[in-house]
Specification:
extended; two-stranded parallel sheet; alpha+beta
Length: about 70
């Protein structure tokens, strides 16, 4: 695909937000090991070779407001 050809020639960080499942993510994976992918999801993704998983808790409303105030 054109996407894999394009990413094969570049270094990039690809962010895929709110992925439904691995089938949705797989066609968007880059064609180069120089590219990295960060996938956010509320579901457990299985079947993505070489993927590492990190589970995070949801921020409370107070934590989210505090974080937002620090970065903005």
């Amino acid at each position: 695909s054109r996407w894999r050809e394009w990413t094969a020639r570049r270094r990039a960080l690809i962010v895929l937000d709110n992925a439904r499942d691995a089938a949705q993510v797989a066609p968007l994976l880059p064609g180069s090991p120089a590219c990295r992918v960060l996938v956010t999801t509320r579901n457990r993704l299985t079947g993505l070779d070489g993927a590492s998983s990190l589970s995070l808790d949801t921020l409370s409303q107070q934590e989210a407001a505090s974080y937002f105030a620090r970065v903005v």
